[in-house]
Amino acid sequence: MQTRFQLMRRFKLAFMILISLASVAEAQVDYYSPENVLQFADFLFEEGDYLRAAGEYQRYLYYARLRSAPEQAQGTNRRATGDNVGIHYQIALCYRFGGKPKQAIDTFETLLQRHPQSTFASRAYYQIGVSYFIMEQFADTARFLQETLPRITAARQHAESQQLIGLAYLMQKQWRAAGEVFKALQGAAVESVRHKAAEYHHYAEQGARLPSRSPFLAGLLSTALPGAGRLYTGRTSDAIASLIVVGLTGWQAYDGFSRDGITSVKGWTFGTISGAFYLGNIYGSVIAARVYNRTVANEFLSTLSIEFPF
């Protein structure tokens, strides 16, 4: 009995010692140190949890400003010093990867305003263009990158920015402009850009050869014969309907004027209806031609295999 009691005391003593050691070990870990916060942020970024990573990077910057560690004063730790341009770039990248391109653009632009000559400037300019592209603001993508291309000094980002300009032209169905960009990029120094340039140039040439319908000709045909413009754009049922409606209302107007003369109520009523349908038939044919061209181009773009280097 005495032995059992002693064993119980020893077990309790060992348990208390383990608890104390664990508490001491935990107390020695400073979870709020800038280094540990930064490691956690990097971990979240690698795991693809980008928005939480952005928050942790911002928390790191806050703690780094509050703490003045010896290695910071000596400049032995670049990421923990006042030079946190890379961290600001990483935050902007988190927003871009995390599905917040507008917030990413604002953050990249702030970085460029504060550090226009940093090593991250070329990447920031390129990523702003990418963010516009993701938002499907293709005209803004081409405009922004064309304006900032002289300031993108890194060879890779410069070539990739040119490629993105060509893709923006392609998505806007500006086949000729896209073709010129990709033709020039076939001699690019960056292998990945040069490799894709020939393929994208072929896409631009295919786009320029897509079947199209002239809105002017469609309207002209419907002016000569109601429904002919719709038939020209492949809308057979609409063409038949236009011909029947305009023809029947026009016939009723003719019948009314033939019986009652110029004062015919029936003639004026059906004549007005027929005229409205006739003008609508012309306008509708013009719109049908534009819709046809847009549909063909969109279907073509949806089949393209485009790989983005970002």
Describe the model.
- This protein is mainly α.
- It has two domains: 34-208, Tetratricopeptide repeat domain (Serine Threonine Protein Phosphatase 5, Tetratricopeptide repeat), CATH 1.25.40; 215-302.
- It contains 15 helices and no strands.
- The model is unreliable at 20-28 and 76-82 (pLDDT under 50).
Give the helix/strand layout.
Elements lengths: L1 H27 L5 H13 L3 H17 L3 H5 L10 H13 L3 H14 L6 H14 L3 H11 L6 H17 L3 H11 L5 H18 L6 H10 L3 H5 L3 H25 L4 H38 L8
Helix pairs in contact: 2-3, 3-5, 5-6, 6-7, 7-8, 7-9, 8-9, 9-10, 9-11, 10-11, 12-15, 14-15
Strand coverage percent:
under 5%
Overall mean pLDDT: 84
Q: State the CATH superfamily name of the largest domain.
A: Tetratricopeptide repeat domain
Biggest sheet descriptor: none
Radius of gyration: 35 Å
Find the CATH topology of the largest domain.
Serine Threonine Protein Phosphatase 5, Tetratricopeptide repeat
Please, how many domains? 2
Question: What series of H and E elements makes up the topology?
Answer: HHHHHHHHHHHHHHH
Report the uncertain regions. 20-28, 76-82
Structure summarized in a few sentences:
By secondary structure, this protein is mainly alpha-helical. The chain folds into two domains: 34-208, Serine Threonine Protein Phosphatase 5, Tetratricopeptide repeat (Alpha Horseshoe); 215-302.
List the main descriptive attributes of the protein structure presented here:
single chain; 310 residues; mainly alpha; Serine Threonine Protein Phosphatase 5, Tetratricopeptide repeat; 15 helices; 77% helix
